[in-house]
Design a protein that fits this description.
166 residues, mainly beta, Jelly Rolls, three-stranded antiparallel β-sheet, globular, binds manganese (II) ion
Amino acid sequence: MASEKHDGQNQDTVQTMPPVRRFRETAEGFRWEDVPLKEYKPVGTHFQDITRQVLFGEDESLPTQLRYFEIGEGGHSTFERHQHVHAVLILRGRGRALVGETLHDLAPFDLVHVPPMTWHQFRADDNAPLGFLCLVACDRDRPQRPTDDEAAALRALPGVKDFIRL
Ligand code: MN
């Protein structure tokens, strides 16, 4: 059995990949064969109703992770920023994302790019989940959350005040 690492961000079990893992759409959401369904983050109260599946993990020749996140109806990811970049492909449902100072409606197959040190948050609509692939580097910095002053400045932006969940 592969061992778990406990070094913060990259805690996912690395297993030898079969050539194909089959996809299933279940009543609880999108699943891939033998891919464990995990909590979005191990601890915290600044997010709501998200699951995480690591589809591709660490491979020395491809040092990235491809994760599938699914946010339940009305749920949201952490409001954060960091040096590392996210490449996101929406696969399921409806929602919105704040990237920098702009809100965007999201639907399946939309692509979202989160540049370095850019505030971002994803929210599912109240009547639909939001499922998306997110590509990140294995070697990545820890997310930052806004200070009180930064949060106040963000809340002054049109439309953002009612969107962000801290
Ligand atoms: Mn992020």
